[in-house]
Amino acid sequence: MALSVTHKKILKIFIDEKSEVDDLIAVEEPMELRLNYLDDEIPTEKSISVTMRTPGNDFELAAGFLFTEGILLSPTDIQEVNYCKKALAEESENVVKVILKKDSRANLSSAERNFYISGSCGVCGKTSIDAIAQSSCFQIGFDFSMSQEQIFGLITQMQAAQVNFKYTGGIHACALFDKAGKILMVREDIGRHNALDKLIGHFVLKNELPLHKNVLLLSGRISFELIQKAAMAGITIVCGVGAPSSLAIDTADKLGITLIGFLKAQSMNIYTHATRINS
């Protein structure tokens, strides 16, 4: 299995002292995603995207990407996920094949623009908030809330669970919490969007969507695409340690998501739908 972290020899300088040391670096490698489905009863295989990611949880990444990008019409459409045996042996773990159920169809119009993406850029070209709302199969409700103290407690839990970040200092994370503010899962990747796709993909494969009673915490700034992906999974509260973009705020407001930025142990900024956060 491909590793998430690798060793590199580096020259370390501190003031006027130099030393060669062994450093741990986050791995970045391409992953091709292929989709198998029936087209007029004919077995068809199509390359959907090539993304730069940190190896690990690749099947979750594939499932999460297909679902949050609207290529899957339902989170239950996946029959099987595996590494492509047709790929060369040294590349087989960088080619993931998703096989749809016999009666499932793919929204290939959403796939056309995604053939090459980087882990950090996310989805380009989407500017319509209404289009995002229409693509989600889950409605955002207002029957879930949390206390300020619970929100303040999220940061330390995620930091404690960021194994690869501790080693490298160069990897993003996202974490999901239950209604009591207890951490359920963390996923890491060199790309923010990949980390979230891995997280959501886990619940796609487990058939445990929507995530209405959960809180999402992001390790960096909050972009429009991350709000979109959260909405696709039905997440109602999204927090980030960094700043949200203007379009992220507008999207969260439109879709009914509570958006929190600059989250620290004792402070936060609530940008939208603050009624879900109790004092």
Provide a quick synopsis of the model:
The chain is an alpha/beta fold and 279 residues long. Helices cover 27% and strands 32% of the residues. Mean pLDDT is 88; it is low at 118-127.
Folded structure, characterized:
It is a single chain. The protein has a domain at 146-278: Cytidine Deaminase, domain 2 (3-Layer(aba) Sandwich), CATH 3.40.140.10. The chain has nine helices and 15 strands. It has helices spanning 58-68, 108-111, 129-135, 148-152, 154-161, 163-168, 192-205, 224-232, 246-255, and strands at residues 5-14, 17-26, 29-39, 42-53, 78-83, 95-100, 116-117, 146-147, 172-177, 183-189, 215-218, 237-240, 258-261, 269-272, 277-278. The protein has a six-stranded mixed sheet, with helices on both faces. The protein has a five-stranded mixed sheet with strand order 5-6-3-4-7, covered by helices on one side. Strands 1-2 form a two-stranded antiparallel ribbon. Helix 8 (224-232) links the parallel strand 11 and strand 12 (237-240). Helix 1 (58-68) crosses helix 7 (192-205). The radius of gyration is 19 Å and the shape is flat.
The DSSP helix count reads 9
Distance between the termini: 46 Å
The radius of gyration is 19 Å
- What is the CATH class name of one domain? Alpha Beta
Report the CATH architecture of one domain: 3-Layer(aba) Sandwich
Low-confidence spans: pLDDT under 50, at least 5 residues? 118-127
Kindly state the percentage of residues in helix.
25-40%
Name the beta content range: 25-35%
Number of strands: 15
Report the biggest beta sheet as strand number plus sense, adding barrel if it closes: 6 strands, mixed
Structural class: alpha/beta
From the spread of the alpha carbons, the general shape counts as: flat
CATH-wise, what's the superfamily of one domain? Cytidine Deaminase, domain 2
